[in-house]
Amino acid sequence: MGWSYALKQASPGNGLVELAYLRIGFPTCWCAMSVTATPLAEVEAVYRATWRNLTGTDVPGDLADACAGWLIRGDALVERAHRGSVDHLARVPAEDFEWGYISARERLVHRLGAVADLTRGHDGLHALGDLSTAMAARLLERWPTLRPLPTQDTRPWY
Q: Distance (Å, rounded) from C-alpha 131 to C-alpha 158?
C-alpha cells in the first residue's frame, strides 16, 4: 500500500493524499511548486499501476476529494510552528504572508486552480470546481501581481 509522507509522518494506507500533495503544490513545504503535466501524469500512472499490481484493485477514493481537503486546510498555508494558532485561511483576504518565497495568496490561487481542474465534469464536486474557478479569478483580479507557483525546473534552490 502507499506510504503517506505528505503529512510528514509515514503511515501505511491509501496514497491519494500524496498524489494530491503533488497537485496542490507541496502544501506543507516552504518550497511550494507546481508539478507540470508530464511528470505529474507519470507519477500518478506509476502509483496507480503499483497499487493495482499489489492489491488487484483500483486505488480507492477520489483524487479531487483529496485535493479539496488540502484546499480548505488553512494550516497548510504556514510553517509548522504557526499551525493551530489561528484560522490562516481566513487571514488571506485581509493580509498576505509568505512562507519560503511563496505567499499564502499565491499558494491559495494554485490550489483553487488544481481543484477547479480536477472537478471539471465531476459528478459530486462540480459546484466546488465552479466556486474554485470563480475564487481564483477574483483573487487574480484583486491582486494581479500574484505569481504562479514555480515549476520544478524554475524554482529557486536556497
A: 35
Q: For the chain, what are the domain ranges?
A: 2-142
Local structure of 130: helix, strand or coil: helix
- Phi-psi category of 33—alpha, beta or left, where left has phi over 0 and alpha has psi -120 to 50? beta
Condensed to tens digits (0 to 9), the pLDDT of residues 1-54 reads 333 444 444 456 677 887 898 899 988 888 889 988 888 899 999 989 998 999
Stated pTM of the model: 0.85
Q: Are 132 and 117 in contact (CB under 8 A)?
A: no
Q: Which amino acid is at 68?
A: A
Amino acid at 13: G
How far from 123 is each of 3, 7, 48, 127, CA to CA, in Å? 28, 28, 21, 9
Residue 98 pairs in a beta bridge with 103
Rounded to an integer, what distance in angstroms lies between the CA atom of residue 107 and that of residue 6? 16
Could you tell me if 4 and 11 are in contact, meaning their C-beta atoms sit under 8 angstroms apart?
A: yes
